[in-house]
Amino acid sequence: MNLIMSGASPFVRKVLVVLRETQQLDDVEIVTVTTAPGATPADLAAANPIGKIPALVRNDGATLYDSRVITRFLDDRAKAGLYPATNPWETLTLEATGDAIMEAAVSMVYERRLRDEALQSDKWVENQWEKVSRALNALDSRWMGHLYGPLDIGHIAVGCALGYLDFRHEDRNWRKGNDALAAWAAKFAARESMQATVP
C-alpha cells in the first residue's frame, strides 16, 4: 500500500499514529507530495479525485481517502479495537470533535496563507477559532473521563488536533482555561507514536 501524504497535515498525522499504534507502518510506502487548494499534484488527483490528503492506495481495492475512512480500515485490518465494536458513539463523537478542531485550524491557516490579503477576513478567522475554543472547553469539561480511558481513535484525533494547534497556532495559547485537557495532552504527546510523528 502507498500512503500519499504531506507531513504538516494533522489528518495525515492521525493516520501515521494509527499505523504506528497498530504496528502496520512497515506495510505502507510513504509518498510525500506538496499540495494546496488549486494546486493538486497529478499523482494525488489520480488517486483521489477530491485532491485531498491523506490517500491510501491499495493493491487489492479502491484507493481510500478521508482520514476517518483510512483509520477505520487500518483498525479493521489489524483488529486493533480503536473503534469499539459495541456502543461506539462516544468514541466516534470524540473523533469528530478532534477532526472538527483540525478542520477549523487548517482553515485559519489557509485564509492567511492562500487568500489575497485584501480579501482576508479577520472575522471569519475568529469565527473558526471560536469553534476551536468551544470544542476545547467541551473536551476539558466533559470528556476527560473518556480521554483517560483505554486508547481509541478519539484519543488519537484529539491528540493530533492539539498538536496541530501547537504547531500552527501557538500564539493562541489553547491551554489557558483548559488545565485538565492540557495535562492529558502532555502525557499523550509523550507516546512513541506521537513523538515519531511531530510535524
Question: What does this protein look like?
Answer:
The protein has 9 helices and 4 strands, in the order E-H-E-H-E-E-H-H-H-H-H-H-H. The protein is α+β, with helices and mostly antiparallel strands and 199 residues long. The protein has 2 domains: 77 residues, Glutaredoxin (3-Layer(aba) Sandwich); 107 residues, Glutathione S-transferase Yfyf (Class Pi), Chain A, domain 2 (Up-down Bundle). Strands 2-1-3-4 form a 4-stranded mixed beta sheet, with helices on one face. Helix 1 links the parallel strand 1 and strand 2. Helix 4 runs antiparallel to helix 5 and helix 5 packs across helix 8. The radius of gyration is 17 Å and the shape is globular. The chain starts with a strand and ends with a helix. This is Putative GST-like protein YibF. Pfam families: GST_C_2, GST_N_2.
